[in-house]
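In response to the reviewer comment on reproducibility (Comment 2.3), we provide here a single inverse folding case reported in full, input and output, so that an independent group could reproduce the run without further information from us. The structure tokens appear first.
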């Protein structure tokens, strides 16, 4: 068998074992056995090939995972944040980007629809909320709604609510991803209408600098949660070359991994909303800095870092090599 054909035949399994190693000891042992067989074949027919070095490295890693001291269990959380979650996000960048585009499309629709018809805001946002916002704008404190209430209770309440919404958005993706699509569209419209409410009063820039002190992380996490729901639905609808049930299980695993990774993001966004956003009048430099750092974090950790990490993998078994 030609080396290129050998790679093409086995690369999906190799990459799956590399990026998403089995947690079950029996599955790990089975993967190790398969890799040993592949390594023996590669050493026989391609002794100096890159694929031989790659398989050897993978087999060695699984061997160590099976037999090394259990003290590495303490590093599992670090490994999750440094490697597992970013590589899972990179694997599904296409779907997550689609979720972002869908949200943006309906954000624009919500914004311009509300611009053309003022009654739309009342249909999307509660009338009481709109009245309070208009009253705050008239008093010269347009975002005063964020200054009310107990900071601690606000933080905990928003964190629990947003986490519950994200879990619902993800789990509902089991219905072919349709509810997740709806949630993304609905959230996009809501944010667009909310933005227009302030932009109509000449406060469009202020909206971003204040609301997105917490909104940057919050909205990014909602988009990713919607994307996780689409990943779940896609696993069932488009299984590719593997069994539909296996594809569904993998989609559920990847989606849940993203949701787990978003839990601290929701917690931090809620903390910002409860404790930091309300300081926009008193310490505007702090709120602006938090907004800017949040934007940098989202772009770096969810876009740039996963791509750079993927490119640093030992061997890229892409279509050109196959």
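Designed residues, in position order:
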């Amino acid at each position: 068998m030609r080396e290129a054909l050998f790679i093409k035949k086995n690369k999906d399994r190799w990459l799956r074992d590399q990026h998403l190693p089995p947690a079950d000891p029996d599955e790990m042992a089975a993967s190790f056995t398969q890799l040993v067989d592949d390594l023996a074949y590669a050493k026989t027919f391609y002794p100096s090939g890159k694929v031989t070095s790659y398989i050897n490295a993978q087999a060695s890693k699984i061997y160590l995972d099976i037999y090394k001291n259990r003290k590495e269990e303490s590093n599992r959380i670090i490994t999750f944040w440094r490697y597992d979650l970013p590589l899972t996000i990179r694997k599904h960048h296409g779907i997550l980007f689609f979720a972002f585009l869908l949200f943006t499309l309906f954000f624009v629709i919500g914004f311009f629809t509300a611009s053309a018809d003022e009654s739309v805001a009342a249909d999307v946002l509660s009338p009481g909320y709109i009245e309070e916002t208009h009253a705050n704008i008239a008093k010269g404190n347009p975002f005063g709604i964020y200054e009310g209430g107990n900071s601690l209770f606000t933080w905990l309440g928003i964190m629990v609510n947003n986490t519950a919404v994200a879990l619902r958005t993800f789990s509902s993706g089991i219905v072919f991803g349709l509810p997740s699509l709806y949630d993304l569209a609905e959230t996009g419209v809501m944010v667009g209408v909310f933005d227009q409410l302030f932009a109509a009063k000449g406060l469009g820039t202020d909206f971003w600098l204040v609301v997105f002190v917490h909104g940057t992380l919050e909205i990014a996490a909602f988009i990713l949660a919607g994307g996780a729901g689409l990943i779940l639905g896609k696993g069932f609808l488009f299984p590719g070359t593997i069994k539909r049930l296996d594809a569904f299980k993998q989609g559920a695993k990847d989606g849940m991994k993203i949701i787990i990774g978003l839990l601290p993001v929701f917690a931090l966004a809620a903390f910002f909303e409860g404790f930091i956003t309300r300081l926009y009048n008193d310490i505007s430099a702090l709120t602006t800095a938090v907004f800017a750092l949040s934007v940098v974090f989202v772009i770096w950790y969810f876009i740039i870092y996963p791509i750079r990490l993927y490119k640093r993998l030992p061997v890229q078994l892409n279509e050109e090599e196959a």
